[in-house]
User: What shape does this take?
Amino acid sequence: MKRQKASSLADLSALAGVSISTVSRALADNPLVAVATRDKIKQLAREHDFQINVAARNFRLQRTGAVGVILPLGHETEQHLTDPFFMSLIASLADALADRGYDLLLSRVIPSNDQWLKAFVESGKVDGVIIVGQSDQIDVIETVAASYAPLIVWGASIPGYRQLTVGSDNFEGGRLAAQHLLSQGRKRLTFVGNPAVPEFAARFAGFNAAIAQAGVPQGAVLPSHVTAEAAYATVRTYLKEDAAPDGIVAASDVIALNALRAIADHGLRVPDDVAVVGYDDVFIAEQTTPPLTTIRQNFVLGAQMMVDLLFRRIAGEEAASVSLQPTLVLRASA
Amino acid sequence: MKRQKASSLADLSALAGVSISTVSRALADNPLVAVATRDKIKQLAREHDFQINVAARNFRLQRTGAVGVILPLGHETEQHLTDPFFMSLIASLADALADRGYDLLLSRVIPSNDQWLKAFVESGKVDGVIIVGQSDQIDVIETVAASYAPLIVWGASIPGYRQLTVGSDNFEGGRLAAQHLLSQGRKRLTFVGNPAVPEFAARFAGFNAAIAQAGVPQGAVLPSHVTAEAAYATVRTYLKEDAAPDGIVAASDVIALNALRAIADHGLRVPDDVAVVGYDDVFIAEQTTPPLTTIRQNFVLGAQMMVDLLFRRIAGEEAASVSLQPTLVLRASA
DNA sequence: ATCTTAAATGCAAACGTTTGCAAAACTTTT
DNA sequence: AAAAGTTTTGCAAACGTTTGCATTTAAGAT
Assistant: This one.
């Protein structure tokens, strides 16, 4: 009993004694083909462990079977791809796409001119694009989004912009963080993070809103860059210069991590002297010393939403931006 | 002056008044076509910003233009994809592949049976496969590697196995770590990590070799799992039970991170009471409190080597496994 | 038995490329 | 000016699918 591998519909059609068309239809469960024929062909396909040529199919169907996931590395070139939050998001995206039989084409882009997205979209390598993080490329994205529907962005939904976004409510997240510190009776709050990043700007706005409502003095902002060294240096310097804050809201867990270190190096204790609230709840957040109280973004849900929206757009349907609610995760740092 | 987008060789051939074949050859710099013709066609292609249909080309050439990057999630299901080391490696792989015009197809696999790799390879979706981490799937990999050449593995090169590997010299890394602690006069060393993971086993062996050579008592091993909680709990328990070690070599930075926390929670100081050496030098290693002394694996070089070897294999050439030398990075923890 | 309708199958084109081979267009040699 | 060579171009097939349309086969109605 020979069980040669059948590697094309033609092979299979020869084995079954029917035409290629019939085989194609049978495997696709097309009701046009008789049940008996269909079963026979499927059985044969199993026996000869037939795997359809995906490239040929996609070619014929004029699609690619892949979705591009792009990380624009705008202001913080080194940081992005290794950022645990983005990685977690990508992992979840890979899963969500795999569920639909699509592949994930990973691409990181350092925007050199404002044509990079257009070029990528027109390269025909993907059926849709997911951009992870708006970076400083909102306007570039907006331009392309105007004429290219299957494009989803992880980031902030900004009034007046039409790009389809999925993101957590950064304002609310910032508010939650500040409110938590305020509720502990802390009064000298500082926000660490670069407000030029749109996500961070929203978090900062929420932070300020909470402070305003509580009626304590306006908090300071330390416009730190996202890189590790920058965050550390910023906090370190701040602690030396200024009256010490009793609470820090960091724009990301990575920044918080470095704030923890700067505070420790300055001889202060967390959370006794200074409380720290992070943002993202990346997997190392519970492993820091002390473990980080932080604002959790649900990246599994986020990834699913993005993929959902993307396929709706690919199918030509309407879809609206989604905002996910962040939650406060209590650990030891605040 | 109309500048419609030309979307196929046919479009372009109509514009240039030559045949499709000539256009194809011209764009490929085939010397068969006259220089003047070639220049004209190339100019036209630029003007109408022609992008060749990659799918069609790959289909015709019977290749996919993609390389699969697989993360087998054997013993440590949750840990892998978010592990900063793997992510860094993947990022570098994406770059190295992009340089060669290849795409990266990300796939994470939870091995349910021993057919997963065979199925993936035979799916025809990729021209080659890079497996990141052997996990507990060495034998599965070995079976497929016997008949499928374009397969490269990040991991340990084990005598008797023929799979083509790129990896850092884990034995040497473990030795370096232990030696560093011994050179500080520390005498009670402990290794934290699960030796069932092949990479970790080699690191442990190097660790033991250094101890044997120094003539101090044999170090203890704490076969911790890689997950955060497990590592923390293991070290915490150990510190309570036993005479405290004065040096810990962790099998990874993530483990080291948790060791730091366990030590701090136990009321001991790093490095004064217990020194800690990590492994990998992931990006958070310099951001912990205190920053980690660790063994660096050069993932950029590693990724390039893997891609190099892969393309040699795809081209049908011979290639041999590569072992990279790890280096000790001195920071504050040891 | 013949005609009509329905169900099942097959034919052939198309997707956009690359490439072996044949043909055409130039060059050089005689 | 024809023959022989050389360079340049074009024809057509092929890669493995899917699918509109035509055709065959089976079933039902008269």
Summary: The longest helix of chain A spans residues 198-214. Chain A has twelve helices and twelve strands.
